[in-house]
Amino acid sequence: AQGRRGLGSKIVTVEAVKWPLPPIPGSVYTEAPINFNGNAFYVDGHDHQVAAPNDTVPGATPLLGISTPNDPNVITGALTGQQTDNVQGTGSDPSVGSSNVNLDLPALAAGWSQMADITLPGPLNNPSTSAWGSIGDLKIVHIAGDLHISGNASGAGVLVIDGDFALSGSFNWNGVVLVLGDVTVTGGGTAKQVLGCMMVQGTLNGSGTMNGNIKLL
Known about the structure:
Layout: E1 2-5, E2 8-11, E3 26-30, E4 42-44, E5 64-68, H1 72-76, E6 87-88, E7 96-98, H2 105-114, E8 118-121, E9 124-125, E10 139-144, E11 147-149, E12 152-161, E13 165-167, E14 170-179, E15 183-185, E16 192-200, E17 214-216
């Protein structure tokens, strides 16, 4: 805005930036139950360094390992005694608790999808992820349907999946993964890691179990 009065002239410049990242309530945010199997999974609400070996950030305030807007006892009850220390974060193990926000995941998905750098129709099985971003070049990737990863995949930024997400291969994502359907994790040997947050509107391993070697940090 510019104004003049007599010999005086004023210019006021305002820059407004909207970034639709919600307040992340935990390493995992889920609106449905989670099933667990084995001890290969690890969920941690502490901040971790981006560079391998992903050490924890000294002095950073931890969040919940798993947060939910519904009854957290349902998730806690699905963990066996040997699995409780597989979910860490603020508080005692297992770090599972009520979210302080009830996120509108479909609205978040719609907002991110409108700004997507890459939009692909689903269902997709092992698409090339070479352009799905890196730490120095974050991307918003929108999958308009189901996604199945059984090979090698990686990326950084925001990954929005309108349908189900089946993960049985090697997967390394830095940022946010938002799934409006169900998430199914299977497979033992191959590494799977999300460094950021996984948000799930459906069930995490709906009809199956969290059965794979996965780290959600």
